[in-house]
Design brief:
mainly alpha, 2 domains
């Protein structure tokens, strides 16, 4: 009987010592929701720690607008996306269309529209939207942003596309919940 207890105890100790413990990444605390997200990702996909870590750093960099965090990303493409997204955020915050010009062509116009919308809102001048190639999209974003800022779905009535108008109303109504 003592042998059986000893063997079971030994097996239990071996089992506990064999479980993989997920290492806490740099810049993350073990008790944070970031670490919880990371460890869940690693547990679900097995050997893809780098991918999970890159995703964590990307999310953290964008949510904190901290380009230094992008430098921790191993994937060249994701690191570049991180830096470009933050450049776009910076362009809008500074109302600086010149920063949009530094972005690749496929995302440059979106950045220019976002900056123009912010300029139009701050100057209360929707005519600013005529300065960008996709003026209609700029106007849609302008009225949607005003609707959200003022919690007033009547601004959505100014959006020409019916489905986008309905989406605008849905967004404003979801804010009231």
């Amino acid at each position: 009987m003592n042998k059986l207890i000893f063997i079971l105890l030994l097996l239990f100790i071996l089992l506990i010592s064999c479980t993989d413990e997920i290492e806490v990444p740099a810049g993350i605390t073990a008790d944070s929701s970031d670490f919880e997200t990371y460890s869940t990702c690693v547990e679900q996909c097995g050997q893809c720690e780098t991918t999970c870590l890159d995703t964590l750093y990307f999310t953290k960099a964008v949510s904190s607008s901290n380009e230094n965090i992008c430098e921790h990303i191993q994937s060249t493409m994701l690191k570049q996306d991180c830096q470009q997204q933050l450049l776009g955020v910076e362009a809008v915050a500074e109302l600086n269309k010149g920063k949009c010009e530094l972005l690749p062509e496929e995302i440059r116009e979106g950045c220019l529209v976002d900056v123009t919308v912010e300029i139009a809102i701050q100057s209360s001048n929707i005519a600013k939207c005529n300065e960008v190639e996709n003026a209609e999209h700029c106007r849609e974003l302008y009225f949607r942003e005003l609707a959200v800022q003022n919690n007033d779905a009547s601004y959505c009535d100014n959006i020409e596309d019916q489905s986008k108008q309905e989406l605008c109303v849905d967004i404003v109504e979801s804010l009231e919940i």
